[in-house]
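#lab-general

N.A. 3:47 PM
ok so I finally got the sequence cleaned up, no stray characters, all 277 residues accounted for. can someone with queue access submit it? mine expired

B.Y. 3:52 PM
send it over

N.A. 3:53 PM
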Amino acid sequence: MSNRLRVVVALALVGVVAFFWISNRAFQVVESGTVGVVTRFGAVQDDVLPEGLHSVNPFTETVHAIDVRIQKLDAAASASSRDLQPVKSRLALNFYVDKTAANLVFQELGPNYGETILAPALQESVKSATANFTAEQLITKRPEVKKAIFNDLKTRLARSHIVVTDFSIVDFHFSQAFNKAIELKQVAEQDALRAANDLRRIEIESQQVLVRARAKAEAHVEGAQAEAEANQLLRENLTDEIISLRAAERWNGQLPLSMGSPGSFVDVVAAWTASGS
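B.Y. 4:20 PM
back already:
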């Protein structure tokens, strides 16, 4: 192969490489879930490229991909409650970068904005909100604590063009002394509740006994009164027919041995009936 041919082949190879390099740099693909921030000679441009294929100047411009999908940050935070109890917490934050301001995020915060802005903002929001609640309220009013931290985070991060979609308090941790105090308080409350329930039960049972005794006494009085009234009514309305009826009810079928004068049978029966009543 002659020298001239070697030169031609070398130039052709260089041309092919240069073509592919220029083609690769001149056409940039912005992947789904990201936007492209363009820098020209290192300076961030105003235009933000949406996902898709874009042509750029391969010699002066560079495209930087910024993730604008919802992301999750798990972090630990330390703070103090209003009553100066130390509190450690595990937190979860969902957020995304405002795609219309991705160039500003890249310019002002850089690609490591999670470390430069998210973590510090989370710590400050937790400290600010926790200081408004006592340690016990952090447990009993957890939804209110979450809302306070969430609102503070949204305000802080909105200034940096980061949108907060959700926030969760995974767990709270307190000192051993505070945990022991809470345990003792719960035991005392349970004992007090149990004593109150026992007292209430005794009161109800006493009332039930009293009601039964009163009902029994009233029934006894009513029964005796009813019997006395019936006897009184019978005495007031005693007639020969009633006497004969009562005698017939009590007669055992044997005739008396001596009947005496006529009509004395009725008198004997009456006397016998009255004595048997």
